[in-house]
Protein backbone atom coordinates (compact mmCIF):
# COMPACT_ATOMS: atom_id res chain seq x y z
CA UNK A 1 0.00 0.00 0.00
CA UNK A 2 1.46 3.35 -1.03
CA UNK A 3 0.93 6.73 0.57
CA UNK A 4 -1.70 7.62 -2.04
CA UNK A 5 -3.61 4.45 -1.20
CA UNK A 6 -4.16 5.48 2.42
CA UNK A 7 -7.13 7.51 3.67
CA UNK A 8 -4.82 9.98 5.40
CA UNK A 9 -1.16 10.48 6.20
CA UNK A 10 -1.35 11.37 9.89
CA UNK A 11 -4.34 10.49 12.04
CA UNK A 12 -4.40 12.30 15.41
CA UNK A 13 -6.43 10.58 18.13
CA UNK A 14 -7.63 13.46 20.29
CA UNK A 15 -8.57 17.01 19.32
CA UNK A 16 -7.88 18.74 22.62
CA UNK A 17 -5.27 21.45 23.03
CA UNK A 18 -2.33 19.15 22.22
CA UNK A 19 -3.99 17.37 19.30
CA UNK A 20 -5.37 20.57 17.78
CA UNK A 21 -2.02 22.34 18.13
CA UNK A 22 -0.27 19.44 16.41
CA UNK A 23 -2.82 19.51 13.58
CA UNK A 24 -2.34 23.26 13.10
CA UNK A 25 1.46 22.95 13.20
CA UNK A 26 1.37 20.23 10.54
CA UNK A 27 -0.98 22.31 8.37
CA UNK A 28 1.33 25.30 8.68
CA UNK A 29 4.73 23.61 8.44
CA UNK A 30 4.16 20.34 6.52
CA UNK A 31 1.19 21.24 4.29
CA UNK A 32 1.79 18.33 1.93
CA UNK A 33 0.68 15.89 4.64
CA UNK A 34 -2.98 14.92 4.82
CA UNK A 35 -4.05 15.24 8.45
CA UNK A 36 -7.17 13.86 10.12
CA UNK A 37 -8.24 14.50 13.72
CA UNK A 38 -10.59 12.13 15.58
CA UNK A 39 -12.16 13.80 18.61
CA UNK A 40 -14.70 12.28 21.02
CA UNK A 41 -16.60 15.55 21.51
CA UNK A 42 -18.57 17.14 18.64
CA UNK A 43 -17.49 20.47 17.25
CA UNK A 44 -19.68 23.19 18.75
CA UNK A 45 -21.95 24.95 16.27
CA UNK A 46 -20.67 28.27 17.64
CA UNK A 47 -16.99 27.32 17.60
CA UNK A 48 -15.89 30.87 16.89
CA UNK A 49 -13.93 33.25 19.13
CA UNK A 50 -16.70 35.83 18.67
CA UNK A 51 -18.93 33.59 20.79
CA UNK A 52 -16.47 33.60 23.69
CA UNK A 53 -17.57 35.15 26.96
CA UNK A 54 -15.06 34.96 29.83
CA UNK A 55 -16.38 32.92 32.74
CA UNK A 56 -15.29 33.25 36.34
CA UNK A 57 -14.97 29.47 36.61
CA UNK A 58 -13.07 28.96 33.35
CA UNK A 59 -10.18 26.50 33.60
CA UNK A 60 -6.88 27.87 32.34
CA UNK A 61 -3.37 26.87 31.27
CA UNK A 62 -0.06 28.55 32.10
CA UNK A 63 1.92 29.09 28.90
CA UNK A 64 5.63 29.67 29.39
CA UNK A 65 7.44 32.31 27.34
CA UNK A 66 8.83 29.57 25.11
CA UNK A 67 5.29 28.33 24.40
CA UNK A 68 4.23 31.85 23.46
CA UNK A 69 7.04 31.80 20.90
CA UNK A 70 5.70 28.53 19.46
CA UNK A 71 2.18 29.91 19.05
CA UNK A 72 3.71 33.05 17.55
CA UNK A 73 5.48 30.87 15.01
CA UNK A 74 2.14 29.23 14.15
CA UNK A 75 0.49 32.61 13.69
CA UNK A 76 -1.95 32.03 16.54
CA UNK A 77 -0.53 34.27 19.24
CA UNK A 78 -2.20 37.56 18.17
CA UNK A 79 -5.58 35.87 18.74
CA UNK A 80 -4.59 34.10 21.98
CA UNK A 81 -3.10 37.31 23.39
CA UNK A 82 -6.52 38.98 23.48
CA UNK A 83 -7.34 36.98 26.61
CA UNK A 84 -3.86 36.06 27.94
CA UNK A 85 -2.96 37.45 31.36
CA UNK A 86 0.82 38.04 31.43
CA UNK A 87 3.06 36.87 34.26
CA UNK A 88 5.46 39.74 34.97
CA UNK A 89 6.76 38.39 38.28
CA UNK A 90 7.16 34.97 39.93
CA UNK A 91 7.49 34.68 43.69
CA UNK A 92 8.57 31.32 45.14
CA UNK A 93 8.48 30.85 48.93
CA UNK A 94 8.49 28.22 51.66
CA UNK A 95 5.80 28.81 54.26
CA UNK A 96 7.21 29.61 57.70
CA UNK A 97 10.73 30.33 56.43
CA UNK A 98 12.57 33.42 55.24
CA UNK A 99 13.92 32.05 51.97
CA UNK A 100 12.25 33.27 48.78
CA UNK A 101 13.12 33.62 45.10
CA UNK A 102 11.79 36.38 42.88
CA UNK A 103 11.87 36.52 39.10
CA UNK A 104 10.96 39.58 37.05
CA UNK A 105 10.39 39.64 33.30
CA UNK A 106 12.10 43.02 33.04
CA UNK A 107 15.36 41.47 34.25
CA UNK A 108 15.45 39.41 31.04
CA UNK A 109 14.04 42.12 28.77
CA UNK A 110 10.90 40.10 28.10
CA UNK A 111 7.32 41.33 28.07
CA UNK A 112 6.40 38.43 30.37
CA UNK A 113 7.77 35.25 31.91
CA UNK A 114 4.61 33.46 30.77
CA UNK A 115 0.88 33.86 30.25
CA UNK A 116 -2.33 32.39 31.67
CA UNK A 117 -4.98 31.62 29.05
CA UNK A 118 -8.44 30.11 29.44
CA UNK A 119 -8.59 26.64 27.92
CA UNK A 120 -11.85 27.38 26.13
CA UNK A 121 -10.41 30.47 24.49
CA UNK A 122 -7.38 28.50 23.31
CA UNK A 123 -9.67 25.82 21.92
CA UNK A 124 -11.84 28.32 20.04
CA UNK A 125 -8.82 30.04 18.52
CA UNK A 126 -7.33 26.71 17.42
CA UNK A 127 -10.60 25.48 15.89
CA UNK A 128 -11.10 28.76 14.01
CA UNK A 129 -7.67 28.44 12.40
CA UNK A 130 -8.03 24.72 11.71
CA UNK A 131 -11.33 25.27 9.89
CA UNK A 132 -9.37 27.40 7.40
CA UNK A 133 -7.00 24.51 6.63
CA UNK A 134 -7.35 21.16 4.86
CA UNK A 135 -7.30 19.26 8.16
CA UNK A 136 -10.20 16.79 8.30
CA UNK A 137 -12.25 16.42 11.49
CA UNK A 138 -14.08 13.31 12.65
CA UNK A 139 -16.20 14.40 15.60
CA UNK A 140 -17.61 12.83 17.61
CA UNK A 141 -15.34 9.89 16.91
CA UNK A 142 -13.05 7.65 18.95
CA UNK A 143 -10.00 5.68 17.88
CA UNK A 144 -10.23 2.30 19.59
CA UNK A 145 -7.46 0.20 18.02
CA UNK A 146 -4.61 0.08 15.53
CA UNK A 147 -2.73 -2.61 13.67
CA UNK A 148 0.32 -2.39 11.40
CA UNK A 149 0.04 -3.42 7.75
CA UNK A 150 3.39 -3.15 6.07
CA UNK A 151 4.46 0.48 5.98
CA UNK A 152 1.05 1.74 7.06
CA UNK A 153 -1.48 1.25 9.85
CA UNK A 154 -5.14 0.32 10.01
CA UNK A 155 -6.98 2.38 12.59
CA UNK A 156 -10.35 1.41 14.04
CA UNK A 157 -12.64 4.41 14.50
CA UNK A 158 -16.07 4.41 16.13
CA UNK A 159 -18.48 7.14 15.00
CA UNK A 160 -22.13 7.39 16.06
CA UNK A 161 -22.12 3.76 17.18
CA UNK A 162 -20.69 2.52 13.89
CA UNK A 163 -17.18 1.12 13.55
CA UNK A 164 -15.00 1.47 10.50
CA UNK A 165 -11.34 1.23 9.57
CA UNK A 166 -9.16 3.98 8.19
CA UNK A 167 -5.70 3.55 6.71
CA UNK A 168 -2.96 5.98 7.68
CA UNK A 169 0.80 6.30 7.51
CA UNK A 170 1.10 7.28 11.19
CA UNK A 171 -1.18 7.39 14.23
CA UNK A 172 -0.45 10.04 16.86
CA UNK A 173 -2.09 9.41 20.24
CA UNK A 174 -3.01 12.72 21.90
CA UNK A 175 -6.03 11.75 23.98
CA UNK A 176 -4.73 12.79 27.40
CA UNK A 177 -3.26 11.37 30.58
CA UNK A 178 -6.01 8.79 31.02
CA UNK A 179 -5.56 7.49 27.50
CA UNK A 180 -7.57 4.33 26.93
CA UNK A 181 -5.97 3.93 23.52
CA UNK A 182 -2.48 3.96 25.06
CA UNK A 183 -3.55 1.07 27.30
CA UNK A 184 -5.16 -0.87 24.45
CA UNK A 185 -2.00 -0.57 22.39
CA UNK A 186 0.06 -1.99 25.26
CA UNK A 187 2.44 0.88 26.00
CA UNK A 188 4.24 0.44 29.31
CA UNK A 189 3.56 3.25 31.76
CA UNK A 190 5.54 4.21 34.85
CA UNK A 191 3.12 5.62 37.39
CA UNK A 192 4.37 7.28 40.58
CA UNK A 193 1.49 8.52 42.76
CA UNK A 194 2.22 11.51 44.98
CA UNK A 195 -0.53 10.53 47.44
CA UNK A 196 -2.09 13.96 46.99
CA UNK A 197 -4.74 15.72 44.94
CA UNK A 198 -4.85 18.98 43.01
CA UNK A 199 -7.80 21.23 43.74
CA UNK A 200 -8.30 23.68 40.89
CA UNK A 201 -10.40 26.84 41.24
CA UNK A 202 -10.40 30.55 40.53
CA UNK A 203 -10.27 32.89 43.51
CA UNK A 204 -10.74 36.60 44.23
CA UNK A 205 -8.53 38.53 46.62
CA UNK A 206 -8.81 41.97 48.17
CA UNK A 207 -5.56 43.07 46.51
CA UNK A 208 -4.92 42.83 42.78
CA UNK A 209 -2.35 40.29 41.64
CA UNK A 210 -0.24 42.91 39.80
CA UNK A 211 0.48 40.18 37.23
CA UNK A 212 2.43 38.14 39.80
CA UNK A 213 2.44 34.34 40.04
CA UNK A 214 3.06 32.72 43.40
CA UNK A 215 4.42 29.27 44.13
CA UNK A 216 4.02 28.58 47.83
CA UNK A 217 5.39 25.43 49.47
CA UNK A 218 3.75 24.41 52.73
CA UNK A 219 4.01 21.51 55.15
CA UNK A 220 0.85 20.02 53.65
CA UNK A 221 1.90 20.44 50.01
CA UNK A 222 2.59 23.11 47.38
CA UNK A 223 0.13 25.61 45.99
CA UNK A 224 0.21 28.08 43.13
CA UNK A 225 -1.70 31.26 42.35
CA UNK A 226 -1.52 32.58 38.79
CA UNK A 227 -2.79 35.92 37.47
CA UNK A 228 -6.09 35.46 35.66
CA UNK A 229 -8.39 37.73 33.72
CA UNK A 230 -7.59 40.88 31.78
CA UNK A 231 -4.33 41.01 29.77
CA UNK A 232 -3.95 44.74 30.37
CA UNK A 233 -5.47 45.51 33.77
CA UNK A 234 -4.24 43.77 36.92
CA UNK A 235 -7.41 42.24 38.34
CA UNK A 236 -8.21 40.63 41.68
CA UNK A 237 -8.77 37.18 40.18
CA UNK A 238 -6.18 34.37 40.26
CA UNK A 239 -6.12 30.73 39.17
CA UNK A 240 -5.46 28.42 42.13
CA UNK A 241 -3.73 25.03 42.20
CA UNK A 242 -3.95 23.69 45.76
CA UNK A 243 -2.34 20.38 46.75
CA UNK A 244 -4.30 18.41 49.37
CA UNK A 245 -4.23 14.93 50.88
CA UNK A 246 -7.28 12.69 50.45
CA UNK A 247 -8.61 13.55 53.90
CA UNK A 248 -7.92 17.28 53.50
CA UNK A 249 -9.59 17.32 50.10
CA UNK A 250 -12.71 15.67 51.44
CA UNK A 251 -12.82 18.13 54.32
CA UNK A 252 -12.30 21.21 52.13
CA UNK A 253 -14.88 20.16 49.55
CA UNK A 254 -17.50 19.80 52.31
CA UNK A 255 -16.91 23.36 53.54
CA UNK A 256 -19.01 26.38 52.59
CA UNK A 257 -17.14 28.83 50.39
CA UNK A 258 -16.39 31.25 53.24
CA UNK A 259 -14.66 28.49 55.19
CA UNK A 260 -12.74 27.41 52.10
CA UNK A 261 -11.40 30.96 51.82
CA UNK A 262 -10.44 30.97 55.50
CA UNK A 263 -8.61 27.66 55.14
CA UNK A 264 -6.86 28.90 52.01
CA UNK A 265 -5.86 32.11 53.80
CA UNK A 266 -4.12 30.13 56.53
CA UNK A 267 -2.16 28.12 53.98
CA UNK A 268 -1.22 30.91 51.57
CA UNK A 269 -0.94 33.96 53.78
CA UNK A 270 -1.76 37.62 53.14
CA UNK A 271 0.39 38.56 50.14
CA UNK A 272 -2.76 39.25 48.14
CA UNK A 273 -4.87 40.43 51.05
CA UNK A 274 -8.03 38.63 52.10
CA UNK A 275 -9.51 35.85 49.97
CA UNK A 276 -13.07 36.98 49.28
CA UNK A 277 -14.37 34.39 46.80
CA UNK A 278 -13.61 30.90 45.56
CA UNK A 279 -15.29 29.51 42.47
CA UNK A 280 -16.22 26.04 41.29
CA UNK A 281 -13.70 23.48 42.58
CA UNK A 282 -12.38 20.69 40.39
CA UNK A 283 -9.90 18.09 41.58
CA UNK A 284 -7.86 15.08 40.47
CA UNK A 285 -5.23 12.74 41.99
CA UNK A 286 -1.59 13.67 41.41
CA UNK A 287 1.06 11.39 39.95
CA UNK A 288 4.18 11.46 37.82
CA UNK A 289 3.39 9.37 34.74
CA UNK A 290 5.99 8.57 32.09
CA UNK A 291 6.07 6.27 29.08
CA UNK A 292 9.74 5.44 28.60
CA UNK A 293 9.28 4.29 25.01
CA UNK A 294 6.45 6.38 23.50
CA UNK A 295 6.99 5.29 19.89
CA UNK A 296 6.75 2.13 17.84
CA UNK A 297 6.32 1.53 14.10
CA UNK A 298 3.42 3.65 12.89
CA UNK A 299 2.45 5.22 16.23
CA UNK A 300 3.68 7.93 18.61
CA UNK A 301 2.37 9.18 21.94
CA UNK A 302 2.40 12.93 22.64
CA UNK A 303 1.29 15.28 25.41
CA UNK A 304 -0.21 13.83 28.56
CA UNK A 305 -0.53 10.45 26.87
CA UNK A 306 3.29 10.32 26.99
CA UNK A 307 3.94 12.18 30.26
CA UNK A 308 1.94 13.80 33.07
CA UNK A 309 3.68 16.02 35.63
CA UNK A 310 2.76 17.67 38.91
CA UNK A 311 0.90 20.90 37.97
CA UNK A 312 2.36 23.24 40.58
CA UNK A 313 5.39 24.16 38.44
CA UNK A 314 3.22 24.63 35.35
CA UNK A 315 5.52 22.59 33.09
CA UNK A 316 3.32 19.83 31.66
CA UNK A 317 1.62 21.47 28.69
CA UNK A 318 4.71 23.51 27.88
CA UNK A 319 6.77 20.33 27.69
CA UNK A 320 4.09 18.83 25.46
CA UNK A 321 4.25 21.79 23.06
CA UNK A 322 7.99 21.47 22.65
CA UNK A 323 7.56 17.76 21.95
CA UNK A 324 4.89 18.47 19.33
CA UNK A 325 7.19 20.86 17.50
CA UNK A 326 10.00 18.30 17.60
CA UNK A 327 7.67 15.71 16.04
CA UNK A 328 6.50 18.16 13.37
CA UNK A 329 10.09 18.90 12.42
CA UNK A 330 10.83 15.18 12.02
CA UNK A 331 7.74 14.78 9.82
CA UNK A 332 8.95 17.73 7.72
CA UNK A 333 12.41 16.23 7.29
CA UNK A 334 10.90 12.84 6.47
CA UNK A 335 8.88 14.47 3.70
CA UNK A 336 11.98 16.11 2.25
CA UNK A 337 13.74 12.74 2.25
CA UNK A 338 10.78 10.87 0.80
CA UNK A 339 10.33 8.83 4.00
CA UNK A 340 7.12 7.59 5.57
CA UNK A 341 6.25 9.70 8.67
CA UNK A 342 5.36 6.50 10.48
CA UNK A 343 8.74 4.84 9.91
CA UNK A 344 10.31 3.74 13.18
CA UNK A 345 13.55 5.59 12.38
CA UNK A 346 11.61 8.87 11.98
CA UNK A 347 9.70 8.40 15.23
CA UNK A 348 12.81 7.31 17.11
CA UNK A 349 14.57 10.54 16.11
CA UNK A 350 11.64 12.44 17.61
CA UNK A 351 11.93 10.38 20.78
CA UNK A 352 15.70 10.86 21.06
CA UNK A 353 15.57 14.62 20.44
CA UNK A 354 12.75 15.14 22.94
CA UNK A 355 14.11 12.79 25.61
CA UNK A 356 16.57 15.16 27.30
CA UNK A 357 13.92 17.88 27.53
CA UNK A 358 11.43 15.43 28.99
CA UNK A 359 13.88 13.98 31.51
CA UNK A 360 15.11 17.39 32.63
CA UNK A 361 11.64 18.96 32.88
CA UNK A 362 10.11 15.98 34.67
CA UNK A 363 13.10 15.89 37.01
CA UNK A 364 12.83 19.62 37.71
CA UNK A 365 9.12 19.36 38.57
CA UNK A 366 9.49 16.20 40.62
CA UNK A 367 12.50 17.51 42.57
CA UNK A 368 10.53 20.58 43.62
CA UNK A 369 7.83 18.34 45.07
CA UNK A 370 10.28 15.94 46.74
CA UNK A 371 12.53 18.62 48.25
CA UNK A 372 9.83 21.05 49.34
CA UNK A 373 7.53 18.29 50.50
CA UNK A 374 9.94 16.93 53.10
CA UNK A 375 9.58 18.04 56.75
CA UNK A 376 13.12 16.92 57.65
CA UNK A 377 15.10 19.72 59.29
CA UNK A 378 18.26 19.36 57.14
CA UNK A 379 16.26 19.60 53.94
CA UNK A 380 14.24 22.50 55.32
CA UNK A 381 17.43 24.44 56.03
CA UNK A 382 18.92 23.52 52.65
CA UNK A 383 15.91 24.61 50.61
CA UNK A 384 15.60 27.82 52.61
CA UNK A 385 19.24 28.62 51.80
CA UNK A 386 18.66 27.55 48.20
CA UNK A 387 15.78 29.97 47.72
CA UNK A 388 17.84 32.82 49.13
CA UNK A 389 20.73 31.77 46.89
CA UNK A 390 18.56 32.00 43.79
CA UNK A 391 17.99 35.65 44.57
CA UNK A 392 21.71 36.26 45.07
CA UNK A 393 23.43 34.12 42.41
CA UNK A 394 22.83 35.31 38.82
CA UNK A 395 23.76 32.00 37.17
CA UNK A 396 21.43 29.99 39.44
CA UNK A 397 18.67 32.50 38.91
CA UNK A 398 19.03 32.34 35.12
CA UNK A 399 18.84 28.53 35.29
CA UNK A 400 15.67 28.68 37.39
CA UNK A 401 14.20 31.38 35.14
CA UNK A 402 14.98 29.28 32.08
CA UNK A 403 12.96 26.39 33.50
CA UNK A 404 10.11 28.69 34.51
CA UNK A 405 10.06 30.23 31.02
CA UNK A 406 9.91 26.85 29.34
CA UNK A 407 13.50 26.81 28.08
CA UNK A 408 14.96 24.28 30.50
CA UNK A 409 15.30 21.40 28.06
CA UNK A 410 16.06 23.40 24.95
CA UNK A 411 19.29 24.78 23.56
CA UNK A 412 18.20 28.33 24.25
CA UNK A 413 19.14 31.14 26.55
CA UNK A 414 16.95 33.82 28.00
CA UNK A 415 17.57 37.27 26.70
CA UNK A 416 20.22 39.45 28.28
CA UNK A 417 21.51 42.83 27.18
CA UNK A 418 23.18 42.53 23.76
CA UNK A 419 21.90 38.99 23.14
CA UNK A 420 19.57 38.11 20.25
CA UNK A 421 17.12 35.39 21.26
CA UNK A 422 15.96 34.82 17.70
CA UNK A 423 19.36 33.32 16.90
CA UNK A 424 19.47 31.17 20.03
CA UNK A 425 16.11 29.47 19.85
CA UNK A 426 16.42 25.84 18.85
CA UNK A 427 13.33 23.68 18.93
CA UNK A 428 15.53 20.58 19.01
From TrEMBL:
Gene3D superfamilies: FAD/NAD(P)-binding domain. It comes from the Bacteria. Its cofactor is FAD. SUPFAM superfamilies: FAD/NAD(P)-binding domain. It comes from Marinobacter psychrophilus. This is 2-octaprenyl-6-methoxyphenyl hydroxylase. Keywords: FAD, Flavoprotein, Monooxygenase, Oxidoreductase. Belongs to the UbiH/COQ6 family. One of its GO terms (molecular function) is 2-octaprenyl-6-methoxyphenol hydroxylase activity. Pathway: Cofactor biosynthesis; ubiquinone biosynthesis. Residues 7-331 form the FAD-binding domain. One of its GO terms (biological process) is ubiquinone biosynthetic process.
Amino acid sequence: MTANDTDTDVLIAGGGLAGATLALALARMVPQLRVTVAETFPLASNAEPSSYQPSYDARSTALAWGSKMIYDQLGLWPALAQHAAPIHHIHVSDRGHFGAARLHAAEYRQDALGYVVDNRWMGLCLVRELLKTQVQWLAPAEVTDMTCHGDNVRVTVTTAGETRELSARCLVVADGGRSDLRERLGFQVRHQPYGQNALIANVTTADSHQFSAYERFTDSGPMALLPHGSPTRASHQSALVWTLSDSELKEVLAMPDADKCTRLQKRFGWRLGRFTRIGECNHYPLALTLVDNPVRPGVALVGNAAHSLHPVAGQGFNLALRGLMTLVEQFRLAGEQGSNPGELAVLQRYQQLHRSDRVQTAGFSDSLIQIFGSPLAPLTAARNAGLMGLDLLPAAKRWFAGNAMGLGGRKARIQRPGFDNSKALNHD
